[in-house]
Amino acid sequence: MVDSEPSIEQIQRLSYVDLLAFMGESNLPPGGFSNIANLIDFCHIHESSRVLHVGSSAGFLSREIARITGAHVVGVDINPNMVKSAQANAEREGLASLCSYACSDICAYRSDEPFDVVLTGGSLAFVRDHASAIRSMVANAKPYGFVALCELFYRESPSPALRERVASIIGNQVPEYRQDYWTDLAESCKELCPWKRDIRPVRKATDDELKAYCAQMAEWASGNWSDEAKAALAARILEYMEPFNENMGYLSAITLAYRHIPTSHEPLLYI
Ligand SMILES: C[S@@+](CC[C@H](N)C(=O)[O-])C[C@H]1O[C@@H](n2cnc3c(N)ncnc32)[C@H](O)[C@@H]1O
Q: What pTM was estimated for this model as a whole?
């Protein structure tokens, strides 16, 4: 991916964010590929659907949805570099006629035409104002359309030492979201009627799997670097990944799909 080789010292000093940008990681939704299948299934996405992908990052989820279903997907992300990268990825993969990207804070985003489906693949946790983001997701969904989110939550608490290690890498203390946090957030919107849900533990990788992944990632991201530089990069990735992987053992992924029932609909009691 990158031709000019940095010094070993530069590699050893790479911050977490620089490393992520450099690796250009796809960033799958929590729950991985099978959760993309859930989102498509739960939200009945098909060729004529218009889908809004919230916090679209490098666009992996939008491209998968477009590739599998033929739906038109618009991604919004607050980070202009992510928007550029998502657009470039869609062009490279021949999906630009189905996927387009806009730079916006989801809380302020309003499309001229509402969408059949508004979904996020794990980005809500990264948005500052969760309540405003979910209200905006609902406002951008057609009446009787679908709103879906998938997020990680803690099944049990990690040790304070592990939380501290993760926080020091990210540069922020990550709140200990529980399952109820995400359901309460969505269900605080009265127009959202529960439709389908899935909860699955996230499997922590074994030490061998993790080491192999870091070596493969370094190989993939570094192009024609020397073996020494590749090994230094693999070691740097592993330094960051070890606490994240440890933390994964405490997490589960929740996927929630809702119908957007307009307030003008007749009163419903047994939903
Ligand atoms: C870590 S990525 C998660 C991508 C996710 N796994 C997926 O499959 O779609 C989170 C993204 O949310 C974006 N983001 C954070 N706050 C946002 C906001 N207020 N509005 C739109 N995007 C936002 C970030 O820039 C980042 O690209």
A: 0.92
What CATH number is given to the structural domain containing 62? 3.40.50.150
68: its two tokens: 């599998």
How many distinct structural domains can be found in the chain? 1
Ligand 1 centroid – CA 179 distance (Å): 20
Report yes or no on 132 lying in a domain. Answer: yes
82 lines ligand 1 (CB under 6 A): yes
Sole residue written with tokens 């304070």: 160
Give the C-alpha separation, 229 to 233, whole Å. 6
Which residue range(s) make up the domain with 112? Answer: 8-260
Work out the number of other CB atoms within 10 angstroms of the CB of residue 233: 27
pLDDT in tens, 138-167: 999 999 999 999 999 999 999 999 999 999
Contact, 93 vs 32, CB < 8 A? no
At 177-195, the pLDDT tens digits run 999 999 999 999 999 999 9
Q: Is residue 265 part of a domain?
A: no
CA of 54 to the centre of ligand 1 (A): 7
